[in-house]
Amino acid sequence: MTMTLIVAKPVAENIEAELQELQHVLTTLTARPAQVAYSTFVETVVNPKESIQLTTIQQLKHPFSPFRLKQELQEEDILIVYSDRNGLTVIAGSEATLAQACTKLGMLLREKSTTSHDNRPHLEELYWTGSLLNGQPIVA
């Protein structure tokens, strides 16, 4: 089985370097390939423990988006949360913040893999919310 990064189409081209870095981190930590797939919206996934979805608040506000966020995010905000339906979902307040969210996710994956019993990240154990101030993550 492979780890899958699912990225909202409009933002994918703006974070190509960050996606490649996340693929490298996942491949290194799990010893399995990580692939990128594209979706217009956050969707229900077949294997949530193997799926990471990256999107922005703008995509979630689209009238056809099946996924809604109950809280409002500011432009500099990031929310990283796991659900049994969608896998690990990374939501950024803007496209500019999504690149920073990918970097933060890579840091969390490395951190969790060193503290887990099998030295691998477990997506269901990840949660982070915060803001970026001058490009630096601030824990909320």
Please provide the ordered H/E string of secondary-structure elements.
Answer: EHHEEHEEHEE
Distance between the termini: 34 Å
Return Rg in Å. Answer: 14 Å
Q: What sort of overall outline do the alpha carbons produce when their principal axes are compared?
A: globular
Number of strands: 7
Q: Would you tell me the overall average pLDDT?
A: 85
Helices, by number, come to 4
List unreliable stretches of 5+ residues: none
* Content-based structural category: alpha/beta
Q: Beta-strand level of the residues, as a percent range?
A: 25-35%
Helix coverage percent: 25-40%
User: Biggest sheet, in brief?
Assistant: 7 strands, mixed
Going across the major beta sheet, what is the strand order?
A: 2-1-3-5-4-6-7
What does this structure look like?
- The chain has 140 residues and is of the alpha/beta class.
- It has four helices and seven strands; from the N terminus they run E-H-H-E-E-H-E-E-H-E-E.
- It has a seven-stranded mixed sheet with strand order 2-1-3-5-4-6-7.
- A hairpin with a 3-residue loop joins strand 4 (77-83) and strand 5 (87-92).
- Helix 2 (16-30) runs parallel beside helix 4 (95-115).
- The mean pLDDT is 85.
